[in-house]
Design a protein that fits this description.
heterotrimer; A mainly alpha (285); B mainly alpha (336); C alpha/beta (494); A: 285 residues; MetI-like fold; disordered C terminus; C: 494 residues; D-Maltodextrin-Binding Protein, domain 2; seven-stranded mixed sheet; 47% helix; globular
Chain lengths: 285, 336, 494
């Protein structure tokens, strides 16, 4: 075995494989980096046409003042504060409610489980456009229009998409685990939060990050439910830009960059976390 | 088991186990209910009323503002004859049948790439995820540029490939080789959106990555000892192990693709400038949800739109049911 | 992992507290709260009183939504609406108006259907009739009748047609737009044109003369893009002397042959490119999607010389003057069909009042002030001028007159200033003197526009003949027209 691994043929093979792998990764990254590079490049140009050919990737004189202008024109400070509220609170909600509901329909043998899951699936099949107005009326009757409650509360009540995802993960956990814990006299709350929760670490972090990003990007919710500009979120601010700066692509792209970069940084930081839980998962299995 | 025991003792025993069982059953019922309560409350408060009103509206001429009048089945009879509905169903079916498998396969490939071991992987993963966080408007704009038939990178590449093909092959072909007009040719517009979908698949790829990370490494090690090739390992260990996630992505893919809206809406906004929601070249991007949106918010035919929504719901329900039945057989939850 | 969750929890808790602050407060405010209260719902109790608010001293909240972004830049629409609101609030102790930015028609739609704010909102002309028929917006006819003559008579008469549906007023004009042709004077001169084309035949010749191919046969320059920025459903019938609805209010369109001829003319431009230069429809469309993203930027096709002529709404003039004072361009009305009369299209955006507003009278007081000639003049001038034309005679006169010179003087270079002044005078003259035609305000206007867009594209790419397309449009629209007869608007000065 050892001999084989140090033979020159094997080493050469490995080197070639490595080169191919890295070449592949580099090309792939280049393709996926395009939007960001293009956004940043456009944002640093003087009054830019959108489709100028051939594209000039690095502007001769970068216009940093475009970024200054963005912060001057739109109240980004307020927007960012508001957006943090409307995107962090849902993360908390989704991390509490989703595993609970998923636990109920996978780990607890009760009648409702078989009824609830199909309904959860079915609710996702109704196009949002037809329920939009009755939804608005409901919130309006509760006097919660122009507050963040319609944007946040639904996440504390279980989001169908993530319930389904959690269900799939919980179902692949060995049932014996829960049964053993029950025989030991552990309560369901303890089973969920002390046994299942750590096992689902990667999924939970993934869900957390995805919810954060979805809420950060959400435009239709705030547009419909928020009606005073002090409560506007950054997505509305970005939309404001398209309404005011219409064809000033450079400002629009500067705003887009300001909008996107925090998300990329958060993803970069969090990804270690959602890969971190592996050892425990596989260890227990 | 009870039969084997003596009569009196057996009766007593079954009774206690029965009582025990029913007590446990009751306990399970209440804890199950308690744990599901967030969703149940949400469903009762915020789902039942909107869904019921949508169903009610679909039998009326509701226009969003006035008290609706009952029109019985008129919306549904109109719907069958509506050319736009038929066109939009065709377009949507194309996305589900052709687009969805491509996008799913690609997102799985991305998950595998994200799971590769190499230097700088955290950065690579982040980069692969970028298109998913870029605001949809910016990515739609970018695609107009990338896919531009004259100067776009894609077509420049294709043209160079075509130039490499020797002349006699080109002459022998029954058609002329030409880079497609991605944005303006109705035959290609949907493919452009599919490519855009593949490129922005970060969200689903990350879920796939989480699943891949859950596959215990011991399995691979054992298989490697048995001399299984990489490919065999992928097919016989990885795929079954992540099959619940694949099923999830498949089912959610069906549900979401039938409601395909945002990307097409953005794309149409930039390609067809008009006061009314557009459907792209020759209505090739008039998807079901786009048509529904136009009926509801541009034409104020809310009742009709609700009928459209109801029909869509039925279609998705049937398709999902079949997909669930078929895929359930292939999914293994407990690989121990 | 644990650390991260702990951190997240802490952050969320802090933010959660902050969140409940402002959001909760708005709700818990007593109904009488005025400053800062953004919700009319809170005032539900006050409006039940039958007495007019002036007498019990209560302040009525009026919310106004507009479609422009929240920008604190000087001269941005949001700024001058806010300035107007401050002035109005100072003058009217009984009414407090609040301006809410970035609210488009769809946002207003959901809110109104859900039974809440806004009281006044901005809308596009093409939504007004549909919304009026469905009962979303208030019938303003009684208010129009009671309004002073100097308010009513100052509106450009044709614009009021856009605000009228079935003989009743539902909206008040804000700004007006028309479509004009922008020419590259130097390119035209190089190609032997010392005047702008006088009619559609000459235009076709001019397109042929000004189009230029590269050595490899690709497009270097097009004379005109026949659907850039879009197929103009309003301008085209005006140019081709036809109407989308006949005078009987039922027959669509008024003249089948004229509409078919209109499609045919546009088709002939595509044919010209195909026959003379070998560029098919798809090639032209690809070119169009390349240049359309550069509209109104420094790379605008008219500035880069990729187009010799193009049509656009008039506010492009302000942008072009600013971006390229040294480029030789000019503008004129789109040439009319041979032998026709000089006509132009008209569009614009309008203000409307929510039919479910709790304070229609106060809303009208605010709206009348917002649309008064004085306000329009203020919006149109100085820093505020951003190329928009307000639907007031006084505002147009002010733009064209002495103040036009003032604006011109404020520009960076004399050339730029001269061009601005020239443009202003020209356009004000168009709005004041040319016969303007708008799309009929029928309740199926959006269906009509959608059908026109769909089928015209099928004509241009050769899928249908012009007459087939006209017949197809009639198939879709005629039943709607019979169901909802259109009543043409008649203007009477007060």
């Amino acid at each position: 075995m050892n001999k084989k691994k140090s033979s020159p043929l094997f080493l050469a093979k490995r080197a070639v494989g490595g080169i191919i792998k890295y070449a592949f990764l580099i090309v792939l990254c280049a393709v996926f980096l395009l939007p960001l590079l293009w956004m940043i490049s456009t944002s640093l140009k003087p009054n830019a046409g959108l489709l100028v050919f051939p594209i000039e990737w690095i502007p001769k004189e970068p216009m940093w003042e475009n970024y200054v202008k963005v912060f001057q024109i739109v109240k980004f400070g307020t927007y960012i504060k508001n957006t943090l509220i409307t995107s962090l609170t849902p993360v908390l909600g989704v991390l509490i409610a989703t595993p609970m509901v998923a636990y109920s329909i996978t780990m607890i043998p009760w009648k409702g489980a078989k009824i609830i899951f199909p309904i959860i699936l079915a609710t996702m099949m109704i196009p949002g456009q037809v329920t939009q107005i009755p939804m608005y009326i409901t919130w309006s009757k509760l006097h919660l229009i122009n507050t963040y409650v319609p944007l946040i509360l639904p996440f504390f009540l279980g989001t169908p998409y993530y319930i389904y995802l959690m269900r799939q993960f919980m179902k692949s956990l060995p049932n014996s685990l829960v049964e053993a814990a029950r025989l030991d006299g552990a309560g369901d709350v303890r089973i969920l939060f002390n046994i299942i929760y750590p096992l689902c670490g990667p999924v939970l972090t993934t869900i957390g990050v995805l919810v954060f990003i979805a809420c950060w990007n959400d435009l239709s919710g705030p547009l419909i439910y928020i009606q005073s500009s002090e409560l506007y979120t950054i997505a509305i601010g970005l939309k404001s830009f398209t309404l005011t700066a219409k064809t000033q692509w450079e400002l629009l792209m500067a705003a887009n960059t300001v909008f996107t970069v925090p998300l990329i940084v958060i993803f970069f930081i969090c990804q270690k976390q959602f890969l971190g839980g592996i050892a425990t998962t596989s260890g227990l299995k | 088991m009870a039969k084997a025991l003596s009569n009196s003792e057996g009766k007593k025993n079954t009774l206690t186990t029965k009582r025990k069982k029913s007590r446990q059953k009751r306990r399970f019922f209440w804890t199950g209910l308690a744990f599901a309560s967030p969703w149940i409350i949400g469903f009762i408060l915020f789902k039942i009323y909107p869904i019921c009103s949508a169903i009610y509206y679909s039998f009326t001429d509701f226009n969003m503002f006035r008290t609706p009048n009952f029109v019985v089945l008129q919306n549904f009879t109109n719907l069958v004859q509506d050319k736009n509905v038929i066109k939009s169903l065709e377009n949507t079916a194309y996305m589900v049948i052709i687009g969805l498998p491509i996008m799913l396969a690609f997102s799985m490939l991305m998950s595998v790439v994200m799971n590769m071991k190499a230097k700088g992987m955290p950065l690579v993963r982040t980069i692969l995820y970028i298109p998913a966080v870029v605001p949809s408007m910016a990515s739609a704009l970018l695609f107009l540029w990338v896919m531009n038939s004259r100067y776009g990178i894609v077509n420049q590449f294709i043209n160079q490939v075509i130039a490499l093909i020797p002349g006699f092959i080109k002459d022998a072909l029954p058609f002329t080789l030409k880079a497609p007009s991605w944005i303006n040719d109705p035959k290609w517009t949907k493919m452009t959106l599919i490519i855009m979908g593949c490129w922005g698949c970060g969200g689903t790829a990350v879920i796939g990555l989480a699943a891949l990370r859950g596959v215990p490494t011991q399995f691979y090690e054992a298989a490697e000892l048995d001399g299984a090739s990489r490919w065999t390992r992928f097919w016989h260990i990885t795929i079954p192990m992540i099959s619940p996630t694949i099923q999830f992505q498949f089912i959610m893919g069906i549900i979401n693709t039938f409601q395909y809206f945002t990307q097409a809406y953005m794309f149409n906004m930039f390609t067809t400038t008009s006061q009314v929601t557009g459907g792209g070249p020759q209505n090739s991007l008039l998807f079901y949800a786009i048509n529904l949106y136009r009926e509801a918010f541009d034409f104020l035919h809310m009742g009709y739109a609700c009928a459209l929504g109801l029909v869509l719901f039925m279609i998705v329900l049937v398709v999902t049911f079949i997909a669930m039945r078929v895929s359930d057989k292939m999914v293994s939850y407990d690989v121990e | 992992m644990k650390k991260l969750i702990a951190l997240l929890l802490a952050a969320i808790m802090v933010l959660g507290l902050v969140a409940c602050g402002p959001a909760g407060q708005t709700e818990s405010q007593p109904p009488k709260q005025t400053e800062g209260s953004k919700q009319t719902e809170g005032n539900q109790q006050t409006d039940k009183s039958t007495e007019p608010p002036q007498q019990d001293g209560e302040v009525v909240e009026i919310t106004i939504w507009h479609q422009f972004g929240e920008s604190v830049e000087n001269g941005a629409p949001h700024m001058y609406y806010t300035q107007w609101a401050e002035k109005f609030n100072a003058e009217h102790p009984n009414i407090h108006v609040t301006i809410v930015p970035a609210k488009t028609a769809v946002d207003a739609q959901t809110a109104i259907a859900g039974g809440s704010t806004p009281d006044i909102f901005m809308n596009q002309w093409n939504n007004a009739p549909t919304w009026a028929e469905s009962g979303a917006i208030l019938d303003l006819t009684p208010y129009y009748d009671a309004a002073p003559a100097e308010w009513f008579n100052d509106f450009v008469p044709n614009v009021l047609a856009l605000c009228n549906f079935n003989g009743k007023y539902y909206s008040v004009p804000n700004s007006i737009t028309t479509t004009v042709m922008f020419y590259r004077d130097d390119i035209l001169a190089d190609c032997g044109w010392d005047h702008y084309p006088a009619d559609t035949d000459e235009l076709l010749q001019c397109i042929k003369d000004t189009t230029l191919a590269n050595e490899d046969g690709s497009i270097a320059r097009l004379g005109l893009l026949p659907n850039m920025p879009w197929f103009d459903t309003v301008m085209m019938p005006a140019v081709f002397n036809t109407q989308w609805i006949a005078d009987d209010g039922v027959t669509v369109p008024a003249d089948k042959e004229a509409v078919a001829y209109m499609f045919e003319w546009i088709q002939s431009v595509y044919k010209l490119y195909e026959d003379e230069f070998g560029w098919d429809y798809m090639t032209i469309q690809d070119f169009a999607s390349t240049v359309s993203g550069n509209r109104a930027t420094a790379s605008d096709p008219i500035l880069s010389g990729e187009l010799a002529m193009r049509w656009n709404s008039e506010n492009l003039a302000a942008t072009l003057a600013k971006l390229a004072p040294d480029v030789d361009w000019g503008m004129g009305l789109f040439p009319n069909v041979t032998g026709g009369t000089e006509m132009a299209m008209l569009g614009g955006n309008v203000w409307e009042i929510n039919a479910r507003t709790e304070h229609p009278d106060e809303a009208w007081i605010a709206l009348q002030s917002l649309t008064s000639p004085e306000t329009a003049v203020e919006f149109a001038l100085g820093e505020n001028n951003n190329g928009a034309f307000y639907a007031h005679k006084q505002a147009l006169a002010a733009l064209a007159g002495d103040l036009g010179e003032q604006i011109a003087a404020a520009k960076e270079t004399p050339e730029e200033g001269a061009r601005v002044k020239e443009n202003l005078e020209y356009l004000c003259d168009v709005f004041a003197n040319v016969h303007l035609q708008s799309f009929p305000t029928c309740s199926y206007v959006n269906e009509y526009i959608a059908a026109l867009n769909d089928y015209s594209a099928l004509v241009f790419d050769g899928t249908m003949t012009p007459m087939e397309a006209v017949e197809a449009i009639i198939d879709v629209i005629q039943p709607l027209a019979e169901e909802h007869p259109y009543i043409p608007y008649e203007y009477h000065e007060k």
